[in-house]
């Protein structure tokens, strides 16, 4: 199938060709005709599936076919709501790219940067607004934004909005729009509050469900270092002496931890920058741009700050701290090994984190091979007490892990430990919302319709079927091509 087959107008086809998009991804093939036909859409898909174009392309086409009436001025006719600034800016880049040959104008409204520039952009007029809820509410209250002419509403990552405490803001924003509009709704999971919102918001929606390309995680080579307490920074510095680690995204549990790790790397002349919610939007964007351009080798991030970031050719993900929620591990490692490339995920585990490691192994149904030959091993007695008693298999060389060993982990885990979840906090600001370190989503809610769980389940069943086969498999064709103009790839 080609984009022409989807009845996309030549002016947008030209832009897609310029972006080097040749074949629609599955979500695009399903969503574009439905949206062009004016239907509401309920999409269950993650970043990386091509969902931005799935909603933006038909949205742009519909708006372009009906230019504003002469003399009426430019009015906001489409609103895209996104939970994070990074995601909003990426959507904005994509919308600009896809609409570059039309007369439509779009602008992004996000927190963390000066409001003045955004006010000016709004005064000049925009057909499409891409926004995070917090700043949008501020601008609505100050009468800089009028949503009375919105014809198309896109809610992206609705479950994440719920997690981040945005859901009431979202409802208040929706109340400012006409009730008659086309709504495109995306959510990876369907907790009850989201189901409720879907019921009130969508009319007879077309449902599209896309699970991430499972081969992504299959191709990722995983390993773990069991470390003496307090030696993670030294181990990281040591690891990064290896020049084959071209770019690494390092995950820490806390914002301060991210700053500390970046400082520690800078001290040994490794270029690194931290990205988290306490940083201004400008410095986050700079850090991201420097990392994407290769100027900085290491980006240190908290989970929430990293969400929505799409980086080309990321070779390594390093878990400086293991996440409290095992699903978060699958999210993190899915950042590498994209676009048909292989990827490496390395985790550091101190004795306190062994139960977290066990939970992760239980979820993915594999023992993560341990790198044994390194400078800071966990002390023998701790190992004996905590590690050697529990099932583990496989080993890997330092720095260069072997493919994951795939003996299914014993279902018996440390039942005394409950995964910690961040308590839902009262929403304050975008930055405050970003202070959470792990997804506060409860594992229970994840059980329903979660593509990552789906991926984990798939891995688990494959591990059971092919206990010896830990080799990274070649990716099946998924219709994605690297090298898009927006600097993002699958
Ligand atoms: P998304 O899931 O929308 O964040 O898209 C993930 C990546 O795939 C982005 O870098 C897009 O530019 C890219 N992409 C989306 N659709 C296509 C397509 N049909 N062909 C090639 N690349 C695409």
TrEMBL record:
PROSITE patterns: DEAD_ATP_HELICASE, HELICASE_ATP_BIND_1, HELICASE_CTER, Q_MOTIF. Residues 384-490 are annotated as: Disordered. Residues 235-379 form the Helicase C-terminal domain. It comes from the Bacteria. InterPro entries: DEAD/DEAH_box_helicase_dom, DEAD/DEAH_RhlB, DEAD_box_RNA_helicase, Helicase_ATP-bd, Helicase_C-like, P-loop_NTPase, RNA-helicase_DEAD-box_CS, RNA_helicase_DEAD_Q_motif. Keywords: ATP-binding, Cytoplasm, Helicase, Hydrolase, Nucleotide-binding. Residues 1-29 form the DEAD-box RNA helicase Q domain. Residues 32-208 form the Helicase ATP-binding domain. Its EC number is 3.6.4.13. Pfam families: DEAD, Helicase_C. SMART domains: DEXDc (SM00487), HELICc (SM00490). One of its GO terms (molecular function) is RNA binding. It catalyses: ATP + H2O = ADP + phosphate + H(+). Residues 411-433 have a biased composition (Basic and acidic residues). A motif (Q motif) lies at residues 1-29. It is an enzyme of class 3 (hydrolase). SUPFAM superfamilies: P-loop containing nucleoside triphosphate hydrolases. The keyword Transit peptide does not apply. GO terms for cellular component: cytosol. Belongs to the DEAD box helicase family. This is ATP-dependent RNA helicase CshA.
